[in-house]
Design a protein that fits this description.
The structure is a homohexamer. By secondary structure, chain A is an alpha/beta fold. Chain A is 30% helix and 25% strand. Chain A has 8 helices and 14 strands. The longest helix of chain A is centred in the first third of the chain and has 17 residues. Chains B and D meet through strand 3, helix 2 and helix 3 of B and strand 3, helix 2 and helix 3 of D.
Chain lengths: 317, 317, 317, 317, 317, 317
């Protein structure tokens, strides 16, 4: 076991880090983050970290590339300051959706980021809900991928919510939706999106599966502009669903998503605090915290305990 | 451009290599493959290959690990014999389904194989229909992944076959099925498999989507024992489908698959020759050749031409 | 020699790239740069680049980290699109001043960037006027570092300007100033900055060397806020200098630099177009173009010709 | 020192692993080895191994490539399951005789395997009696190569056997034979094999050295088909040797070796259990166990104690 | 923390190693260094070092390449003898002045040495006063660079010496001289060397800065032939300096430096024992020991304590 | 094929390089080798080498470590000067006898040198007569190992010399001696050295094999002090040999070897010019040149032609 757990905090999500530290009964390392006039980032760790067990926490949120570069610089600083072991804790993994080459001459940026994180000094990664499970294979260092599923299931049990059908908003997400359906004892449906012409607007689609007279829960790994989600909601209601809610782990809420949410017929949007809420919170949004899940992950990595049971049960430290 | 195209042939699929060489109007390199009495493999390339553009062709078929080790040894031999550039041509990629860590403490063997292929000497990979598109991101060398879709579409057009609905046999394959449906102008359905108890037998499931009075085409990347495929066939017929056919790129046909195929209600099983047919061919099986597709890929890599148009149109060399 | 020179353009400095392409009598590759709603960058190269000799041009300017990540993504895209050779052309190298560890637990970000550029796919680097010559040693790939000195000397000769003393604005830059003094036939002086208390404001300092009745030229690798430069100007005038001009290769011009320039007693600020001018140009600023120098470098790398004579003589393609 | 010794057992040699575990007073890790219907191997470690000191034990025996791939997969699994340190324990090293390039365009597979073992996750190797001592230099990770010599010497002392001359069956093995001769106080002889024509049959050869009226012990690192050994036996007897015995560390016993042994004039074949005996044991075979030697090696690696004294003295744990 | 501190001594500087070991209250590891008749070096470590915290001490002194190769061989030996962690302790770093490419087609040998030290097995480096601070960035392993400044300041305080002006002997050293001036409360001056023709003789130069009636201290990282130093001394005296002394960390004293020192007007030459004094000591030379500084560095690395305070205060173990 | 063959000459063996260049009808590159006063080596290549096919020639001779470091520096210089491909041509490979770990805690320096050569920039190696063939496996870059055997055989044929028995001077060399015996149609014998006590003096030994009334040729890869060779000569004569000659590829001739040769009963010592003759030549020494063999190797590598036939036949360019 390394000397001590020490938390090296990026600037992307102070609240989450505070919550994690509180659970771990520790304080983040003293660190000075600077942006020079020439727009270059810089950090100085103000305490000795030799041989310590360092956890660098940074999430991916707007401005994404600023926080990503800050992450790399923190890793580099910790490595050459002789950290004992460095774990990059990334609640929302940067560029996670850029995971395949479905057109010629495009990047697989999630792979590039995986390599750059290791190059910069990380010995391990702890993250949450990759877009696709295969992203795990992009790394050449050990990765623990936690799942927000357990957080949702615990919430549903505590609030005695009842859903009848879990809906995947597109073909790529059916496997995830299937897993949620099993845990929640629901049936499964999937949206089949069509685009009428070759433009970017997504048209309402057909629902594959039975949703009539059912309480539907759409599940997805992230919500960006919400366009897909709100269209799916409309389609489900048109197809006879009684109510439509949604659970999206990573709440990007880009563009005018919050405004559209307000107007939409979606009853409730459940998200986690893997990224800080941009814009004003809405009455329709329920935020579940992953701080306990991440704190558990950190503590178990430090102690060399298994993380696998985190996937199965509610967790307390 | 490297000096010359030279084909270094593994022993897994002589017929396919012969067909590819015929199209390329070349002969495979003279090579001696030996299995010593102590079960060690060995190869000797009998011609000079310095600075040549070497394409090592090997597919993954039973005995999988023998052919895989043979592949590694051929790559090693070519590398240290001063090949100019080495492309591993792998019609069916070994261990391609071991692409995620969905249980604790299991391997992601497709990533390991990707690394070992590069270590052994490959500068590039040319392959066909990965199980998931993210496998592309496991590599740190350029990969060209061809798709058998075009071969199927060409076949359907030539034979004037007509399908109404494309069916994914499980949640993980919905995205692929979606793509086929678009190309063939079909609607989409998906099987939702259930297991009643925690044993390995797969029970008949529910079909999500409308198949009544339709000609169904199940699509999958591979057919192993066929268990899933035959159950899906039964379910589709029970749900009102008129006929059920299937297209699976890689024809593993393990166990008693061929016998079961004979008895099953599946009308036609269309496969490719990415792996040699194990067992006797059946009247129900149609084999489409990928030799022209692979030969085209090889020639374009050698000449530095784009491969992307191979995905769109029928191809002749 | 690689097949063809192809220019892959980042979005940081369109004008400079246009000028370079004009000299090279070529067009940049067709490329689509996209920023998704979730703030992730993406690019797609719209033409085949297999086996070509790719030059990716990107400079470092505000927002620095956005352009840096864009650079990495372009390199990654070109590498896996099977470029023959990739040269990162970086007129102003990112994070070039973060080149030493003069405090405990800080990063050497220029080294990190050097490694990340190679990791992302660059085979070579072409850059201009590093802050310190040792930065060259951070790389494990060949680097050609051009020097704007020749551009300035040519300008001085053409405009028949006359300087008597070259001044380094601080101790770290004396070696560079010494080189300019030799080329321009001037004597040398150096500013010795003092800070009275431990705050960030730089106080006027002492001048080491004789500047009385002399036309002074301050030289530095870059001008950021200009604070040091304007203080040095005042000190030089107070010490009897007749006129004070300055040459700074990289014109960052951060904060209210341009306003201060207007008010300052600096007669002329000569810079290059290694980065695009932020803010409105000023009558006091003379901009020398490095496009010809960079175009020459690109052409000679492509043809395998020596770049060393670029350091000595005026250059035409 | 790592947390705990844990033994991860391959399926190639259950008896030897059982013996080693007994000496170490431990149980192997719970692990599930699976061969899927498509012939792909898979393993799942059923216990937490984070930060533990893992020893993966696998020998090389028919089917060699199956066990080798199983080894790679176990290493990969242990690495990404966050093992603290991984030692590959390989009683008989795979492909150990493929150690030189004595023909053009052949592989040095022992080097390839050395690299693949490290790539798959091994931090160290513990092995026994390489074919040539230089194989040690193929690795870039620390290797402990134990020698069965001490096991043989102990056996000879306990059984009060007496040999007069140690014989190398070919030129390549003279150095090893020399070492045994010194330890056993014997003189040395060497077989000079000749082939009359360019075919694969090995003809009886000349003996270099005096064997008349002597009790001869042939020593070699391994016995495969035994052809060389039995011919050497005949030659020695013809040259006047009184009795001929043999010690071969690794008992491959390929083809009809056991039958030939029965018929041959070799008095006794002494081997170790570095690989499991294939075929029925013969009255002429004496098997010495290396389990104690390997268990000692494992324990000393774990404790950070010197292994060098294992080469000199009998050993008990 | 690793098991034990163990010192592996090269043969370049026995006295310094003895002093360091005395302070650390330890004995160097028993090691046999051999030079074979064919001029090949060899070493054998005579004690077990498994899992220990090894510090390999070697300085760079004539014959430089012999000691450098000896260093590489010691590192290789320690690595494959299973050392727990290896720190290369290099009081004077080899080839440290070859740190930039200021002519075409020359090496940056300090970078090459940095890479070779890591390749040979070092996990970390502990060194003293690099020629330029950027050399730090040549490494991809953590480096602690101690500074002899503190040793000098302590000496000046103890001996109550008084200097008025710190002089850099050339442009490249102004930054270092600036730091000494601040610590000693002195003003700053710099020599501007000129060469009249293109030969190797350095001519007397101009002094930039005021030295009249002042006690001058020239500071430099090393003294080789002393040519520059003695010329600077003459120039300073001619310009009115009262006395001239010098502090050079690394005392190479090449050629007839000691004789010239005797004849020169330099009052005192203060050096450290980072390299052993070649030739007879002179009455004019004061040697300060860095053994305590290095011993402190070693102990703090071993214990995981911060080294940064070593830069600020006098140090006792 | 690379642009041009260019020879980059080390300073260890000017005569051999001159001969090679003459055969290749080329001039070595202009290069300046410098040894600074501080004993640091330096080189500057005085001509453009971009994209050229560089062959760096250096042999291993006293002072071994100086020439080795010079080699590394030349490789580094060529790499960063943008050479197209770099082949290290090493007639006598440095540290080639340090190829195994036959004692605890010693280095395998030949492996270290192999790695350092690749690190410094070599893409390939061309060498001659390794001590053991397994050294080939130490490299991760392609190696062509030429054999002086063919040079000797050609010489024997031309001079109509006749030998009856080939003798290996120790157990380790029997395999090499065996090969020579086959090529020369001789029988085989081997010396069995004994040491009476544990000191370094080698005592006369027993000969294994029949040498009576025979013309003996001792063969070895190198002759250092000659002690073994001269003892073997005496033993052979005592055992009835008529004449004793010797062929040693690499003529180190260390210590008083040449004097001893004069006094010894060895009739003729045949060597090659792989290393320059140290000391005065002796009437007893015949020197065969490997310049033609190496020139052929260089030319064939450049043209991408097979080198394997060089092993079989006399060679002319």
């Amino acid at each position: 076991m390394m000397k001590d757990i020490k938390i090296l905090a990026g600037t992307s999500h102070p609240k989450l880090i505070q919550d994690i530290c509180k659970i771990l009964k520790t304080q983040p390392l003293k660190v000075t983050h600077t942006r020079f006039k020439n727009d270059n980032l810089f950090c100085r760790i103000e305490e000795n970290i030799r041989d310590d067990d360092i956890f660098v926490i940074q999430t991916s949120v707007k401005p994404v590339n600023e926080y990503l570069m800050e992450l790399y610089i923190m890793l580099d600083t910790a490595k050459y300051a002789s950290a004992g072991r460095i774990t990059a804790v990334l609640p929302y993994f940067p560029y996670v959706r850029s995971d395949q080459k479905d057109q010629p001459r495009i990047p697989i940026t999630a792979r590039l980021v995986a390599d750059q994180i290791a190059l910069a000094g990380a010995d391990r990664v702890l993250s949450l809900d990759f877009h696709s499970p295969q992203v795990h294979g992009f790394f050449r260092i050990p990765v623990d991928q936690l799942q927000a599923q357990a957080v949702l299931v615990e919430h549903v049990q505590q609030t005695k919510r009842k859903f009848d059908v879990v809906v995947s908003p597109d073909a790529g997400g059916v496997k995830r939706a299937r897993a949620y359906a099993q845990r929640l004892g629901c049936s499964l449906a999937v949206m089949d999106k069509r685009r009428e012409k070759n433009d970017d607007r997504v048209y309402m689609g057909f629902i594959i599966g039975d949703v009539q007279n059912k309480a539907a829960l759409i599940v997805d790994d992230e919500i960006s502009t919400g366009q897909t989600l709100f269209h799916t909601t409309d389609s489900l209601l048109k197809a006879g669903a009684v109510t439509v809610s949604a659970f999206c782990t990573h709440a990007i809420l880009a563009g005018d998503c919050l405004e559209k949410l307000k107007k939409s017929k979606l009853e409730e949007l459940i998200v986690t605090d893997s990224i800080p809420l941009l814009g004003k919170p809405s009455a329709k949004i329920t935020i579940l915290s992953v701080s306990s899940l991440l704190a558990q992950g950190i503590m178990r990595i430090h102690k060399g305990e298994s993380l696998s049971e985190l996937f199965m049960h509610p967790f307390r430290i």
